[in-house]
Design brief:
homotetramer; about 375 residues; alpha/beta; eight-stranded parallel β-barrel; four-stranded antiparallel β-sheet; about 15% strand
Amino acid sequence: MIVVIETGTPAQEIQRITQELERLNITPEQIVGNHKVVIGLVGDTAAINPQQIQQLSPSIEQVLRVKQPFKRAALEFRYGQPSEVFVETPSGFVAFGQNRPIVQVAGPCSVENEEMIVQTAQRVKAAGAKFLRGGAYKPRTSPYAFQGHGESALSLLATARQETGLGIVTEVMDTADLQKVARIADIIQIGTRNMQNFSLLRKVGAIGKPVLLKRGMSATIEEWLMAAEYILATGNPNVILCERGIRSFDRQYARNTLDLGAIPVLRTLTHLPIMIDPSHGIGKAEYVPAMALAAIAAGADSLMIEVHPNPAKALSDGPQSLTPQQYDELMQQMAVIGQAVGRWSQHFPISTVDCTSQKHQAKQEICDQTITAMIFRK
Amino acid sequence: MIVVIETGTPAQEIQRITQELERLNITPEQIVGNHKVVIGLVGDTAAINPQQIQQLSPSIEQVLRVKQPFKRAALEFRYGQPSEVFVETPSGFVAFGQNRPIVQVAGPCSVENEEMIVQTAQRVKAAGAKFLRGGAYKPRTSPYAFQGHGESALSLLATARQETGLGIVTEVMDTADLQKVARIADIIQIGTRNMQNFSLLRKVGAIGKPVLLKRGMSATIEEWLMAAEYILATGNPNVILCERGIRSFDRQYARNTLDLGAIPVLRTLTHLPIMIDPSHGIGKAEYVPAMALAAIAAGADSLMIEVHPNPAKALSDGPQSLTPQQYDELMQQMAVIGQAVGRWSQHFPISTVDCTSQKHQAKQEICDQTITAMIFRK
Amino acid sequence: MIVVIETGTPAQEIQRITQELERLNITPEQIVGNHKVVIGLVGDTAAINPQQIQQLSPSIEQVLRVKQPFKRAALEFRYGQPSEVFVETPSGFVAFGQNRPIVQVAGPCSVENEEMIVQTAQRVKAAGAKFLRGGAYKPRTSPYAFQGHGESALSLLATARQETGLGIVTEVMDTADLQKVARIADIIQIGTRNMQNFSLLRKVGAIGKPVLLKRGMSATIEEWLMAAEYILATGNPNVILCERGIRSFDRQYARNTLDLGAIPVLRTLTHLPIMIDPSHGIGKAEYVPAMALAAIAAGADSLMIEVHPNPAKALSDGPQSLTPQQYDELMQQMAVIGQAVGRWSQHFPISTVDCTSQKHQAKQEICDQTITAMIFRK
Amino acid sequence: MIVVIETGTPAQEIQRITQELERLNITPEQIVGNHKVVIGLVGDTAAINPQQIQQLSPSIEQVLRVKQPFKRAALEFRYGQPSEVFVETPSGFVAFGQNRPIVQVAGPCSVENEEMIVQTAQRVKAAGAKFLRGGAYKPRTSPYAFQGHGESALSLLATARQETGLGIVTEVMDTADLQKVARIADIIQIGTRNMQNFSLLRKVGAIGKPVLLKRGMSATIEEWLMAAEYILATGNPNVILCERGIRSFDRQYARNTLDLGAIPVLRTLTHLPIMIDPSHGIGKAEYVPAMALAAIAAGADSLMIEVHPNPAKALSDGPQSLTPQQYDELMQQMAVIGQAVGRWSQHFPISTVDCTSQKHQAKQEICDQTITAMIFRK
């Protein structure tokens, strides 16, 4: 349920309405959009009569129920306003969102040793990536396959983070490892196979750090958004959705079917930022560039690409990894498309914070640095 | 890798071979089949030269590598001998396996209250079920949907168990709940959404209790067997596979596509017992009986069917639940097919134990009560 | 739209109502059920006011619109009464329907030469089949693969028909061959790849011979029934639906996923008889028996099974063909399940005709020979 | 099988080799690439010994077997050289191929009346389209739905062609209509449901006109190329592949899953040009632009987009049709991406002919007008 406030309502009155709403045993969340302030109501709203709320103030323009089964993830919940996820990295804040430059995440499937991870981090940073991906805990089909170096890999990621200033994205598979992972990761990844591991979703959400939620192999869009809702329901608004290929009837050449159609569909359903992982999505290095470019043209907010210094010798997912040089070349091609759609910037606007969120209001002063709305994406 | 022993080799020599094998830093597991004794080798067998083992004794007939990516789950690993899972219940041991009567598991999706669970337990027991299913922790698509009564539901299951003597099958979703669940459950269920939650697989396996492993919604047969391998690799051989419907392009009428073809396919790949869940598999009560009968004809070792005293008011999965009376009727129909295929018994042979496993050798004396091989299934 | 007639209405009055209906520019079709006579209205019924029809006679109990997008295929159109398809063979009429014994169809994928087809025909007849299947025109993925012997294969089928008295089921792929195929075939098959070849559907329908309509590889149940509707709309009521496996994400072991769930689903939607083809459905000879038995238990009205004298040398689909001996053995197993469900008969009731259809009313005298309703299938 | 000729071999010697090859009862096809001349051998090459051919001339560099099951469709068959399909339209030749500007095809699902089709044609031409699409014969799921205006629609397409100079793309469903369709169509479309209607493929191929082959709803890439092979095997090299969305497990929001990954995959397998149909591919007008842009970035050679003057009143597929104004806007966005990838041209190079094909060698003089190789696509 959302409460739309009349344009021009003084902050004091909004404050008063919020306090009144709190008395109804629901949690009000203020969302400051470009044109409107709305208050999202979280909790057992089924029992609440919209008319009762309407009467709280003449400054209430409308009281609307969110029709979708996902509530906080719904675009309606933010009255059509896209959300932005701000991630703190050693080099400053990086913003994921529809009105932000495309954020590049790159790195190997697994962290193998210090040299390889630091070297890869340096290369992808030089190419323009803002985040390093790398697996410490690897979900592998076989119990006998390499399962990741675990805790020691986490410290290597910490080293790479310190050396390069890149943010770290890494996966957690087990709630027992959550604290360790959260100490190192700037974004905690929930993998495809755990998209509906609801216990994990709740516990990762409760940590409060930004969460990257990969789509399950045969998850419908609705199931995916419901999984996001599990995280959002913990009060953590920092969820990034990542499409990484779905399972179809044909796996002879491509490992998965990258569902780029999810981008425009999600845009009509949710305010959350969207990342595309073309590496898993198609599963062969030679096919990755075409899909990365397509993802940008389709409107992705971020890309995650596997890069390994020596794919032929990778401990996992070698066939779908680019070499650093291939990544350099792809980045140049991506820049061409990224510029064409108005979402590429040489000088990435670090430092911006979420001006619409209460949390960061202290940093309000730097809000004016946010880049202006993109012409192309309207 | 398996070591096939010559027929007629004295137990002493087999013992000696086993000790020699242990020196190679691998774990030998003895499998006593109808015709042969074989020793399965577990561990890093890649480095071992089969010829080196061959030379350990002239009583070694053959040394074979398991070609499948799943090793202990492979039919080859048991030299073609089906395995049996013996589950201890208040009424004695119940055996799951190809040469055993079909084991019936029934009950509601969720445990709602004492009256409903005890009543349902009594009804399904009267109809011939050996196990009560009932969810205490429910994996639900929505965070706002009923999530199961948790711990209090577990005690209600304990009550139903005591009252009826039925074994209990219930799901664990979170490693944090594992001890609590394991105290009550005779078989611990790993649900569809967690089939590749590898941390959970390992921890549940390590508990040592029988595990029911449901197939993931779009898991291939191979991925499913690899998930079973995660459990088997902990040293727990008591895994039952449960097909519960896969995801296909058509969900207009049926919720899922029940893949009964998995039964003959699995028979050529694995020795593990197979359960079919037609309730989730097709998702509407009126379609369940046809699929239950088909499952028996196709060779299922066990069936799991949702039964609820009042499906219209069920807190979850009502539309696919039978009433106790419908279950009675279905049981009569199942008896007809079960008898036709020679796998139905009025007087269920409780008390039998796994004669092929070292663990239960103390109870060897009751081994002769096992029913004789089925003519029909050859 | 259907007009339900009051029980006990004299034939004369029904006749009068029918004539009145004809004046409305729609075609009335009389359906005589066990308890009721209903008149199905075919044509542009959207414009017709049900009340206007109601007023035609006090003997009209109800006027109902068929809610499904498929009209004549809908179970509603026959007021819940299953239809029966009667096929004339050299040995008399064979009936396909829910209250009839299961009809066995068997034979090779392709007709290869006279010896093999006649021999196979003799073997499958001896085993209990009523129809010989055999391809003269083969839809092959590759233009360079064997495409069937065409017209000469048709004459070999004619020979086999004459020698054995079996009915013939063979596929037509091209409207140009339709006349030739129709001269030989007792049932004309429309293959999976042509399920939505609407021109072919219409032209085959117009021939008037019974049609076997295989389900498309990824056709939904609704699309399949709509394809049947194309045939029914030509005025030809003799359509048999054949499930032959759908395409899913896993084809590593089984060629297709046999959707036996289609049986109970179809029973709630349509009156048409249902055949199952486990050979294409699962695609490997060793898996076929389990699926054939399951199909019978699930309620199939007919089975189509590939049998080849020498599968290893078959020109097409060898891996999924049984040898005649394997077919004999399977038939014995099928008999066990068929008897259990009350749909097997040593002495197949040839000679019965469709007593509910106007067409065959001349043969009314033999209608009393129809077997009585099956207890099991209710 | 292909015969690679040494660079610098005189035309006379190539001619002689060709004649020698003809004596072997196979059909040699000369392919003039950028760097090499190769001779493709068509027919029963299995029996031919490569060494025997090698000995025909010292100018033969290599004799290679095509390893793919599709032969003429294989990239190997043209020694890696992409093919180009030249279509004659009233405004001159239009080329489809990897080194050509992206060809735009647009128009309504069905031809409804003269005004709508001519008007739409004028609008899409003004926007930059080179071809008008429009259905005269429509494959509809329901026999009671609008089936297209047939022959009269064909004459309306002829009128629109004459009025605007656009080429015409229209579907044929029935071999009986083939001559009529071929008289009007510049490109004959084979629809999704007929992709494996092998009789139709052969007959359409034999007409010799360019063929647009849509991918079947659940056709694998290999099956699709095998279907193309049916056309190519008639000697007609002018095949364009069209991806139009595949069937997946999720159809709640998008009608189909547009498989853009097919583009890079096909590039490694075949030389044939690739068209993308985002309208059917995703099935809702608001999602079409994102997918059209993505298709261009992924490397599509052509786009087919549904445009209707009044989508809300369209006789078929209204929800996925753009208005002419939306198409104008999309064309502007496509131009941005098209220019970025170097495949957009204000002044479309009409008049170019296939310089690599013998057929058009007479028109060699205009070959130098072909646009230069694209830097971006390398």
